[in-house]
Design goal:
The chain has about 325 residues and is mainly alpha-helical. It is built from 9 helices and 6 strands, in the order βαααααββααααβββ. The chain is extended, with a radius of gyration of 30 Å. The N and C termini lie close together (about 10 Å).
């Protein structure tokens, strides 16, 4: 027994245009920007959560013995999350630039058979990264991630000390530091990290390093974002323009009337026409990204090229499909 189904033309157009959008190189680049944003938000969120937790003790009148039992373990957990997000942000940047600039170094310039670096990475990225993060203290912070992966999760030395120089009042100082005894269990520190540790007497005051790295990480992220944006701007703009054009066409195609309590169950008179006009105005203001390239030969012949984005059909039309 056959049956007749009605299929809105806009749903067919939508599927076709989404397939076209998926084939555009700008789509992958746009998704890479979204991935970078997520990694940046993860880093910023973990940093803020860690700082807020420290603020419950540092700079307050609380003493170390008055802290909740889980304060130390929570400090370790939040610092571990921060270190993990530092590595995630760095890894996402590496994945991005190797996709945008994929040309690998020639064999004679590689450090070994496992060297996956690219020409752009060696010529541009590494120099900028060394400039911003090459200090021994920051390299120690990076190497802490290796310490947590391969040996131990660093423990905290949380304490309160007092100083009194009469007739001045007693000064209380709260501190959160990395236990040097725990760090000593890791024997694979890189050269810069070893140099930094030699400058430290006793437990390591790491919070200034976190602040220093966070500031430079934000600046470096902005620089990197602009580098990638400049390289793929045309492709991403094409993708976003066509994506917006489709969205505005769908908005006009699927516009519905307004409803209000004063009109019972029926639509507000004139609302459908008004909303159609508004949707069409927005669509017209955006325009189209599907113009064909027109070339004029030396003999005056005009050649109209092909396009992967033909004009969208008029709205409000349906077709019958037999099933």
């Amino acid at each position: 027994m056959s049956r007749t189904t009605w299929t809105a033309a806009w749903s067919v157009v939508k599927s076709d245009r989404e397939e076209r959008l998926n084939r555009l190189p700008g789509k992958e680049h746009h998704e890479r920007f979204e991935t970078l944003n997520r990694a940046s938000e993860l880093f910023s969120g973990n940093l803020l959560e860690f700082q807020n937790h420290l603020g419950k003790f540092l700079g307050t009148d609380l003493q170390a013995g008055e802290l909740p039992k889980r304060y130390e373990s929570e400090t370790i957990r939040l610092f571990h999350n921060y270190l993990a997000s530092v590595a995630t942000l760095r890894d996402m940047q590496r994945a991005t630039h190797r996709a945008v600039w994929p040309e690998r170094l020639p064999p004679e310039e590689r450090r070994g058979p496992q060297d996956q670096r690219t020409v752009w990475e060696a010529a541009v990225y590494e120099g900028k990264a060394k400039e911003d993060f090459g200090d021994d203290d920051l390299q120690f912070l990076f190497d802490l991630r290796n310490c947590t992966l391969h040996r131990t999760v660093p423990l905290m030395a949380i304490g309160t000390t007092w100083k009194h120089h009469p007739p001045e009042p007693v000064m209380q100082r709260n501190s959160v530091m990395l236990k040097r005894s725990e760090l000593a269990k890791f024997n694979r520190w890189n050269g810069p990290a070893k140099r930094f540790l030699k400058t430290q007497d006793g437990d390591v005051d790491f919070l200034p390093l976190v602040e220093k790295h966070s500031q430079r990480a934000r600046e470096f992220f902005g620089w990197f974002w602009q580098q990638v944006k400049d390289a793929v701007r045309q492709d991403v703009d094409e993708y976003l323009d066509k994506q917006t054009e489709l969205a505005l066409w769908l908005r006009e195609e699927t516009v519905t009337p307004g409803f209000g309590d004063d009109w019972g169950d029926g639509p507000i008179p004139g609302s459908l026409r008004r909303k159609r006009v508004e949707a069409h105005a927005h669509r017209s203001a955006h325009g189209t990204a599907g113009w064909r390239q027109v070339e004029v030969g030396s003999d005056g012949t005009v050649v109209v090229g092909e396009t992967d984005w033909p004009p969208l059909p008029a709205v409000g039309k349906y077709r019958i499909k037999e099933a």
